[in-house]
What does this fold into?
Amino acid sequence: MQDSPDLNVSASVPDWSREAVRGFWDPGQKLLRSIRRYQAAHARGGVLGKLTCKRWALSHLFWSTITQCEIHLNTQIEGGLRLTHPTGIVIHPDAKIGPNCMIFQQVTLAGAVVLGGHVDIGAGAKLLGPLSVGHDARIGANAVVTGDVAAGQTVVGIPARPI
It folds into this structure.
């Protein structure tokens, strides 16, 4: 984790290049692609939309199994999400993820957790909602967050406290 927020990453404008599949084995990006394409097909509706939903649901099942992630197909995720090491991530269906967030391995968003833009969550962190995390906030590795986190704040520890 950095000491200061990365000023090159926007907290409000999604950077879709962060989700681009760049190689044969990009499990995090492929998992996100299956979620996004499922949601687009579901919104389109109709017979073709239903068939396409089934295809992307199977892709989601495959990549969820490979990464051991539990991210519901209808989770609200804005653009630019990075799943740097997508292993063991659990995101509740009621969670909302803002643009350009980064989530490391073994992170749990339990309940109605709302992440602002450009939130970085360290490995093993647990966010136990309902709670909200402001723009440009950082959650330290293995932190257990049970309350709201202000914009630009860094929290660490069990229970998580600002530093």
Remarks:
- The first strand starts at residue 70 and ends at 71.
